[in-house]
Amino acid sequence: MKVKTILVSQPEPKIENSPYFDIQEQQKVKIDFRPFIHVEGVSSKEIRQQKVDLTTFTAIILTSRNAVDHFFRVAEEMRFKVPDTMKYFCQSEAVAFYLQKYVVYRKRKIYVGKRTFAELSPLIKKYKDETFLLPTTDKLKPGVPVILNDLGVDWKEAVFYKTVISDLSDLADVYYDILVFFSPSGIESLFHNFPNFKQNNTRIAVFGNTTIKAVEAKGLRVDISAPTPETPSMTMALKKYINDVNKK
């Protein structure tokens, strides 16, 4: 069956040259974007209930841009002036670059990993005398605490923001040829909003092994997956699939 419509379970890209827009134009398909989940900040009162005193930490571990936003939001709500001596350990260059929204980059001690949390750990180990705060989501990857505990550093995890299921009730009678998912939370949202969802002829595109497992656990069929050696990105996987089925 040919592909005419795609729903991507993420916000619409803000950049004009997104590969999704190229697919739309070149393949003559309609692509809609709709976040199946969204992030909500935890109040400063709830942070205090987690027994978090921001004045006691000398270093912050930042795993995402959400972590950056919500750390500085909470600091402002608590009227905590982040000291210039604070050290920032950023999981990736993208997170470190985003940090510039809040601090003067050249005047701060910022340490940057390559991509994964495991790749950041040697930098954290080098500064094991620091007291680390990990502002995180309620859905923290289980491997992160294991790595920090193995390093033997003084650290504390605190939930600064939560992943919340979005209301998708307005999509009840809307059909798409392909649904695109990037996390198990997206699958959870699909069944929360549509408990009786049946796949039928809908193709499901999935990014990452944990998301594939979540799809299969619901008895659904994975039709398109990434990353693979041939298609390292979701847009490349979609483009290849559409090329194959639409030319028949």
Outline the structure in words.
- The protein is an alpha/beta fold and 248 residues long.
- The chain has 2 domains: 108 residues, Rossmann fold (3-Layer(aba) Sandwich), CATH 3.40.50.10090; 124 residues, Rossmann fold, CATH 3.40.50.
- It is built from 9 helices and 11 strands.
- Strands 3-8-7-4-5-6 form a 6-stranded mixed sheet.
- Helix 1 links the parallel strand 1 and strand 2.
- Helix 5 runs parallel beside helix 6.
- It is elongated.
- It starts with a strand and ends with a helix.
- The mean pLDDT is 94.
What are the SSEs and their pairings?
Elements: E1 5-8, H1 19-27, E2 30-33, E3 37-41, H2 44-49, E4 59-62, H3 65-77, E5 87-90, H4 93-99, E6 109-112, H5 117-126, E7 131-137, H6 143-151, E8 154-165, E9 178-181, H7 184-193, E10 203-207, H8 209-217, E11 224-226, H9 234-246
Parallel strand pairs: 1-2, 1-9, 4-5, 4-7, 5-6, 7-8, 9-10, 10-11
Antiparallel strand pairs: 3-8
Helix pairs in contact: 1-9, 5-6, 7-8
